[in-house]
Amino acid sequence: MDVTGTAGETEKLGNSTWQTVPTRMISAGGVDFAYRELGSGGTPVVFLTHLAAVLDNWDPRVIDGIAASRRVITFGNRGIGASTGKTPTTVEEMAEDAVTFIRALGLEEVDLIGFSLGGMVAQAVVEKHPGLVRRLILAGTSPAGGTGLDKVARLTFYDIFRGAFTRQDPKQFMFFPRSSAGKRAGKAFLARLGERKVDRDKEISVPSFRAQLKAIKRWGKRPAADLSVVRQPVLAINGDADRIVPSRNTEELGRRLPDCEVVLYPQSGHGAIFQFHEDFVRRAVRFLS
């Protein structure tokens, strides 16, 4: 196992912020994983990110808010951003790579926060490695075989086109409603994503993006898993009008998981945890405590 840092090696992780924390690399399973770690205390919280996202797509307010009381770890899975290797085309393979990364850090138990595709990966981790996970936060995601996952690719490309046509970031359309409040929230979110000026991650490659889309489609076609066997407490959270991963999937998680709290933010979509980041951080910290 090899662990290196690219900047600020003498900076204490507990004093870092998302804007300044160094990007590090760890080698495991034939992959060099890029990751960032900050905060301290309690069971480590590992973040699993969304379609097309790299390290710099996490909202700094969410990361810093949770890292104020917990050890937080974010990483690029195989082939994503600066991490090496070829991106898998199934959620299950992505989950195994995530477990490889977690164990390479010497962690025996973690909490998981999975957003969108990351929430699918989190479920696959718990399914195969239940002893590794203490608590789960599943945001804007779906169980296997969920509703509307066959439309994710079409909606994503449509929003990419809308972004190009209007010279806006596609996340304005993917994550936020077209209401005045939604537009303001989107602009504020995108401004926060730009706060880190140095040591930024690489953008996702086209082959990796296509592999992720294929994995989501396959997850949608997979037979429904028996979620009644999941004994970990779960917080399932979304906007009430998510058009990318329909909100009814969050409600379905609430019905099928034995110990699950469901939160649907009003008048919000796929990026509800960023639109309501202050409330989300309070709920997440309370839940993980």
TrEMBL record:
The record's listing under InterPro entries reads: AB_hydrolase, AB_hydrolase_1, AB_hydrolase_fold
Q: Gene3D superfamilies from the xrefs?
A: alpha/beta hydrolase
Q: Which GO-annotated molecular functions does the record name? A: hydrolase activity
Every AB hydrolase-1 domain range: 44-274
- At the top level of its lineage, which domain of life is listed? Bacteria
One Pfam family of this chain? Abhydrolase_1
* Swiss-Prot/TrEMBL keywords: Hydrolase
What is the protein name given in its UniProt record?
A: Alpha/beta hydrolase
Q: Which organism is it from?
A: Streptomyces roseirectus
